[in-house]
Amino acid sequence: MTDINKDTSACKMTIAGNIYEAGNAREFKTGDWRSVKPVYIPEKCIQCGLCFPVCPEDAIPVGKDQKRTDFNYDYCKGCGVCAKVCPFGAITMKVEGE
Amino acid sequence: MSIRERLSGNEAAATAMKQINPDVVAAFPITPSTEIPQYFSTFVDNGQVDTEFVAVESEHSAMSACIGAEAAGSRAMTATSANGLSLMWEMIYIASSLRLPIVMSLVNRAVSGPLNIHNDHSDAMGVRDSGWIQLFSETNQEAYDNLIMAHRIAENKDVLLPLMVCQDGFITSHSIENIELIEDEKVKEFVGKYKPEHYLLNKKEPIAIGPLDVQAYLFEHKYQQAEAMRRAKQVILDVAKDFEKMTGRKYGLFEEYRLDDAEIAIVCMNSTAGTTKDVVDALREKGIKAGLLKIRVFRPFPAEEVAKALSHLKAVAVLDKADSLNGVGGALFEDVVSGMYLNKNTVPTVSYVYGIGGRDTTSKEIESVFNDLMEDRKKEKIENPYRYIGLRKE
């Protein structure tokens, strides 16, 4: 896709902001919206599998071995649902930038 | 050979739409434009057009359906008036900002309230900043001709803006006049096939239209619209030239009637120009150098050209058939005087609000405006430049 960013001039932008390519939602890094951030504590995690199904952004990567790894902060919006469902305190929420 | 007919303004608009044969027409009935979709649905039922007619449940839906159809890659048209246009308001801006060249027949009527179904221009004036091209028509012939030219202007790659053709509710929409129609085949050839570069139903190019446009982008997209509106002026003239070749009927950004040697003049739009021409002729017989400038293209506003055309006058009256309620004067008046100022062609100019809610404007009243101008031209400073015609004030 044509690379259009906040420095692109009007004459180089597509008309009406049209996007002439499909499947580009992943280029929109919605992780920017986050104000609180989940922190993964692997020592407390027993890989019970409760957190990743509830993530609305699919931002908890799970490997072929069915084990989760650290968050994908490109898309995690910091909603905190994962921290809420974790019975083992393996996810804590931290204010961004602190 | 053209076809000589006698049609009402609404019949003329519906006939133009029949000859254009658009892919989609979505419309909802509202006085005084009701007859346009009514006649058109008859053409659909009789198989005289291939159009998909969408009988929507509101004008908001009518414009939404036109937007969907146009974005999908088809040619869409609609017709409405006054409060119908008000209900479209949200989608009017979506249509223009998504750069969809929808064509609308707007039969001008007062926007309520209190409830009034008669002619003034408050509906068109309400959307003058919405990014639609606005053409005004003095006669049924002009309403027809403007519609035949509409798609060529709107769909031009340098433009891609929606366009509305205005005519006066009842005064022309319901009056039967002689008209010269163009043969179906010639219209078909003139309007041409709609070939959008990008459209939603193109399987080879999946696209997204109308995405989220945050702080870093909307400003530039508005500028693109403004540029398209500026470019539209030349396209309108180019299309008019081709139209003249086909029909012999000449159109510009505005019409100058006995203006070149005039000393005083009226600027107005739509059917009142007809009355004014009559008065101008009568005054000329008495040796009074009166003239008329009739605006055809209101958006984009031909500020420089208007200022130049009026520069030799001693006094000008701008007639607005809608009160802007801004404490200063009508919308057309403001555009004319700011055009004069920017082009350093200032002429003493006054604003007249007239004909609100379908109030008749007679030739006697137009004559009284010219009489006022005869007095104003002698004065150093014009008193009370915000005036009314035919109002019971006290």
Polypeptide structure, described:
Chain A is mostly loops and 98 residues long. Chain A contains two helices and two strands; from the N terminus they run E-H-H-E. In chain A, strands 1-2 form a two-stranded antiparallel sheet. The longest helix of chain A is centred in the last third of the chain and has 5 residues. The mean pLDDT of chain A is 93. Chain B is an alpha/beta fold and 394 residues long. Chain B has two domains: 245 residues, Rossmann fold; 135 residues, Rossmann fold, CATH 3.40.50.920. Helices cover 40% and strands 19% of the residues of chain B. Chain B is built from twelve helices and 15 strands. In chain B, helix 1 crosses helix 2 and helix 3 packs parallel to helix 4. Chains A and B meet through loops of A and helix 8 of B.
Chain-averaged pLDDT of chain A: 93
Q: Taking Cα atoms only, what radius of gyration of chain B do you get, to the nearest Å?
A: 21 Å
User: Low-confidence runs of chain B (pLDDT<50, min 5 residues)?
Assistant: none
The description of the largest β-sheet of chain B is: 7 strands, mixed
Topology overview:
The complex is a heterodimer of chains A (98) and B (394).
Chain A: E1 36-40, H1 51-54, H2 81-85, E2 91-95
Antiparallel strand pairs in A: 1-2
Chain B: E1 3-8, H1 9-20, E2 24-27, H2 35-45, E3 52-55, H3 59-72, E4 76-80, H4 82-97, E5 103-108, H5 122-126, E6 133-136, H6 140-154, E7 163-168, E8 176-181, H7 184-191, H8 218-247, E9 254-257, E10 264-269, H9 272-285, E11 290-295, E12 297-299, H10 303-310, E13 315-320, H11 331-342, E14 349-353, H12 363-376, E15 386-388
